[in-house]
Amino acid sequence: MRVEYTPIYRPNLGLAPWAAMLDGILQSDRPNHDYPAFDIEAVGDNQFTISLAVPGFSPEQLLIETENNVLTVKGEKPQDAGKRRFLHQGIVSRNFERRFNLAEHTEVCGAHYRDGLLTVSLVKRVPEAMKPRRIEIDNVGQVLNPAPAQATLPIA
């Protein structure tokens, strides 16, 4: 059994929980765990892009899906009928499936393909109710919304 530690080092976008990362540590024998190469870039306070190097793939051969806070990018090429004979094949163009853990409220807002690079745009939209809010302190010393007084029971 091969233990893979890359989920620990793989960046989770938007600070996803550690438990989700640790679930994948003992997954062994995952083919293509380092293919395709990718970059993750913060392009704003709550905006990110993931760029994947997918040489030889056309946009029609790529699939992007999100489910349960996991972004999955798949690339599938039709099987060659063995007509090509390579003397050296340095450009990897095998099928792949790459997964990225997303934090809550992180959404895919678009994708772009150009010159062998697939760029997926992400944005983190935290609902207003979950954002921190500032509570003003009254300097007069009065409570603005006092809690109702609790009734006391007589001691028998």
At the fold tier of CATH, the topology name is: Immunoglobulin-like
Overall pLDDT score: 78
Q: Rough shape?
A: elongated
How many domains?
1
**How many β-strand runs?**
7
Contiguous low-pLDDT stretches (5 residues minimum) are: 1-9, 18-22, 25-29
User: Structural class, judged by helices and strands?
Assistant: mainly beta
Reported CATH architecture: Sandwich
CATH classification class: Mainly Beta
Calculate Rg over CA atoms.
Answer: 25 Å
Question: Roughly what fraction of the amino acids lie in strands?
Answer: 25-35%
Biggest sheet character: 4 strands, antiparallel
List the helices and strands and how they pair.
Layout: H1 6-9, H2 18-23, E1 38-42, E2 47-53, E3 62-67, E4 70-75, E5 96-101, E6 106-114, E7 117-124
Antiparallel strand pairs: 1-2, 2-7, 3-4, 4-5, 6-7
Task: Characterise this structure.
This protein is mostly beta strands and 156 residues long. It has a single domain (6-80, 88-130), classed as Immunoglobulin-like (Sandwich). It is built from 2 helices and 7 strands. The chain has helices spanning 6-9, 18-23; strands at 38-42, 47-53, 62-67, 70-75, 96-101, 106-114, 117-124. The strands form 2 sheets. The chain has a 4-stranded antiparallel beta sheet, with no helix packed on it. Strands 3-4-5 form a 3-stranded antiparallel beta sheet, with no helix packed on it. Strand 6 and strand 7 (117-124) form a beta hairpin. The model is unreliable at 1-9, 18-22 and 25-29 (pLDDT under 50). It comes from Methylomonas koyamae.
